[in-house]
Amino acid sequence: MALPIRRLLAHSALLLSACFGLPATAADPVAEPPASAPAPAASQPVDPACPPAPVEPTAEEVRQAMAQARDHGLLWKLKRDGRTSWLYGTVHVAQRDWMFPGPAVMAALRGSQELALELDLLDPLIIERLTALTRQPADGPLLPAALAERLGKAEQQACLGGALQGLRPEIRVATLTALVLRSEGLDPSWGVDNFLASMAHGMGKKVHSLESPERQIKLLLGDDAAARATIVGEGLDELAQGQAQRTLRRLVNAWAASDYATLASYPQWCDCLNSAEQRQAMRKLLDERNVAMAAAIARLHQRARGVFVAVGSLHMIGPHGLPALLKARGYEVEWVSFTAPPGPGAESASSGRAAHSK
Asked: Does pTM surpass 0.90?
């Protein structure tokens, strides 16, 4: 089944730091940051008209940024059986300042015994599996010649040169989409999940992957040659028409403002649920994954003294979002507002107020 690229924006960028770009370094500000890999040399733009390559922050820059950090995103407190865990909605493409957790998020992370992510991209075994899954097979062409030429031209125009050669075409067009707002400072290099992973490792916390690389990559790939060509063609169309840019910009800005209402209304403004096929694809992308992730979160909560769960914010919205699913499992689910209550539709405690404002 073909899934247009706009429907993959919040999902695909999480994988791209493993395939392309710079994994940002982070740590407990009072500890030494762990080492991280440098950005691949082939991905560095040389044209002065191109967006500058991301530069990994130094330990001192991390500490200064942490001291000034503001809370962004969506945060819930989970309680059951005398244990407290946290559920945090992230974004996988961000501005550099956004990746540093603010006071409320930092307090929740510090107070948790373990961290759970969609994927821990600092796990070498996860990276090894992703690399194998995203590599282009050697047994024949994967795209019609005209479409392959169009994809190559788009990569040149995006200042990527040949950096993506050797990857599957669906991964290449997803990368183009995730990098489309680099000129506005939005880059998967500054994805919140990877920073949290680096910080948790630096603090000596155990880090879990809620999903497998195989399941995540399968969502990005076409089932056959026709589906593959549709994914790439639609992705290039949406980039050329500015649709991907508009969707990504609205999504990340809503996250930065902790704007639950805009995120919750994503199905109304994404222009992505116009057919039975699109609705089925969205169910696979979000609803079906949410059920499995809720079960995994429940298992972790039962055996740990506290788990900080950080996954993409679109997994938090609606009746099939993680807060609703965990509430149905018997958890006390309390919205932690950084400014004001989220309004109708968000799962919250009966008071509807922030935990830290009582």
From this structure: no
